[in-house]
Amino acid sequence: MRIFLLHRKLATMNRSTESLLIRKLDVDLAGGFPRHWHGGDAFLSMYFNALSMSFPVGEQFFIDAVRAGVALLPDTPEHAAVRQTVKDFAGQEATHRHLHHLYNLQLEQQGLVNRWQHWASRRVAITQKLKLHPRNLLALTAAYEHITAVFADGTLRYDNWLAGAEPAMQTLWRWHAAEETEHKAVAFDLYQTLGGGYLRRVAWFTHVLLLFTLESTRQTILNLHRDKSLFRARTGWSALKFLFGRNGHVWRSVLPLLGYYRPGFHPNDHDNHYLAQRWLENNSKHWRAIGPSK
Questions:
Q1: Which of 14, 129, 139, 228 has the greatest count of CB atoms below 10 A from its CB?
Q2: Cα–Cα distance between 158 and 230 in angstroms, integer?
Q3: Beta bridge partners of 25
Q4: Tens of pLDDT along 112-168?
Q5: In this predicted model, what pLDDT tens digit does every residue of 68-108 receive, in sequence order?
Q6: Is 0.90 surpassed by the pTM of this model?
């Protein structure tokens, strides 16, 4: 048993320090997209739009957190692979931030108001004012990355999550999901390398999970209100189907999310990297490699 656990730990560490490709996605967001781009469904369009609204500020926070964390490691050969992985992680997140910024500009032109970016910016300012230790910043980042990874898994695994959506938007969301799956353990591993413990990890995760649930709901409601589709019966029915229907978001997400509370949890225990690899291989015409970082 000890030998098995050792091999699994080594395999996990090796995957966490693998080189990450930085990709340029061939999607033209400047040309715009329909208001109800998700198969004409108001709820699904406004829910995914709400998630996009949080990304530019969030991705920059994650980049800053891992950079602050890796700066604490001794500049020795044994940490060279970790340093390179952090550079690659930052490169992937920077491309996500850029494309979702363009996405959000289109949402503004459609009349939607992004409140989530301001909520997130205020929290980032508070963490800077409090001068939180990088371990806390990494615990926050690892928590958000786990939530994102669970959503990414569903996006890649269940066709109905994006069925009927505009092809370009399907490509955008699944590309993002594939890269989030690739780097889902980077912040977590760096947190543990710097001595981060269980209690701090789950305390910040509880905070993040509650906050994310509240703010994603608030922004979706705001989007639906601006869209004048909040009180339509069709909107409510769509929400119920997506959350609780076949392969519903709630059914498929609750247990993976709560798995974070397991003392021995590691993001790569759920090895779903084949989903990301399969999508990237099948859709290679939509992206080209521009990394890893140097």
A1: 139
A2: 26
A3: 287
A4: 999 999 999 999 999 999 999 999 999 999 999 999 999 999 999 999 999 999 999
A5: 999 999 999 999 999 999 999 999 999 999 999 999 999 99
A6: yes
